[in-house]
Specification:
Blueprint lengths: L7 H27 L4 H9 L3 H26 L8 H17 L5 H12 L5 H35 L4 H23 L1 H11 L6 H25 L2 H28 L7 H15 L10 H10 L5 H48 L1
Length: 354
């Protein structure tokens, strides 16, 4: 099919690529502006990282996305046995793309749209992706709690003043989990939510949104009831999430080692990174930027200089944010081309039938 630069499809692809490049540039400028006062020292630290070390760091970032894809494929295969790991990777990276390019608003719609094309009924994909989010939040809370139980005395002796941030992070994360679990499992809460949707404005646009949201909510409830009865699937999801977080929380330790920063050991860095993610949940963000940077520097600058913490943060974000976003743009353009080819093929077949 023809998707050249002069066609509407070609213009749409160019617009997507331009928006993605602009988003990446804007976020890079934002990072530079935040750390400009220490830019020289940070650049010197990062230049000391060799190419093989950088490749290892990027590989850890990819491994983190692959482990998240393992969670996705475990949940989706309950409904679509033929769903492949490659498709799960594409769903995961579409989530990365949607989180950045649509300021989080289009993440689940983009993923559920892909799952619908794979054969999952309308609303089912949104339900599964919402449950994946609930399991991720629950794993963050549980993993950090275990780390605190094992190393709470060490933390209390080295990082006084974190308690209020820690309680805030715990409180907001627990409220998010509790609210979503009630929505997923308690029929009375679901009925209240559906009743609330009935009070939305009585216009054609809002009617379309209402039907979509109600269908997604009903699918979420049904999916949750079935999943909670599947103990084997729950254990697999728990195991994959634990490995997923262990991989993610290892990246700051690797970054510190590459920068030759003396500081806490591996287990302590796992705890500190868990606290960083817990605290970042309590803060508003735009396209996934802001809370992580604030919490990272606030916590790790207690154990190293500000410039060292900032250098480690940049390496961490390259591995977990910027590089995955670049990969997600490639995946999005590829999936978009497949959708356009399919739509053009259907249009051509209809013309032939006429």
């Amino acid at each position: 099919m023809n998707h050249g630069v002069g066609t509407p499809e070609g213009r749409k692809r160019r617009k997507t690529a331009a928006v993605s490049a602009a988003t990446l540039l804007l976020l890079s400028l934002l990072v530079f502006r935040v750390f400009r006062d220490h830019a020289r020292e940070i650049l010197e630290n990062i230049r000391a990282v060799s190419l093989p070390e950088l490749l290892v760091l990027l590989a850890m970032g990819v491994a983190y996305q692959l482990l998240e894809s393992a969670v996705c494929v475990t949940l989706v295969r309950r409904r679509l046995p033929a769903f492949s790991f490659r498709q799960a990777v594409e769903v995961t990276l579409l989530g990365v793309f949607g989180n950045v390019s649509t300021l989080s608003a289009g993440t689940i719609p983009m993923q559920s749209g892909y799952l619908r094309r794979c054969g999952l009924m309308a609303g089912g994909g949104a339900g599964i992706m919402t449950l994946e989010y609930v399991f991720h939040k629950t794993a963050v809370l549980a993993y950090t709690t275990v780390m605190l139980l094992l190393q709470g005395r060490w933390l209390g002796g080295t990082a006084r003043g974190l308690a209020r941030w820690l309680f805030l992070g715990y409180g907001i994360c627990a409220l998010i989990i509790a609210g979503l679990l009630l929505l997923c499992t308690w029929e009375r809460v679901q009925r209240l939510a559906l009743r609330g949707m009935d009070r939305l404005p009585d216009t054609e646009a809002w009617e379309r949104r209402r039907r979509l949201w109600q269908a997604n909510l009903t699918a979420l409830y049904e999916e949750s009831r079935q999943l909670l009865r599947d103990g084997r699937c729950l254990m697999k999801v728990l195991a994959w999430n634990a490995q997923h977080l262990c991989c993610l929380y290892s990246i700051p330790f690797l970054a510190a080692q590459m920068l030759e920063i003396p500081g806490p050991g591996f287990r302590q860095m796992q705890l500190l990174t868990g606290l960083m993610h817990l605290i970042s949940n309590a803060l508003p963000n735009v396209a996934g930027v802001g809370p992580v940077e604030f919490a990272f520097v606030m916590i790790f600058s207690r154990y190293m200089t500000y410039a060292q913490a900032s250098s480690a943060l940049i390496l961490y974000r390259v591995a977990t944010f910027f590089f995955p976003f670049v990969l997600s743009v490639i995946v999005f353009l590829r999936v978009q081309r497949q959708v356009l080819d399919h739509a053009a093929g259907e249009k051509y077949n209809r013309r032939c039938e006429l």
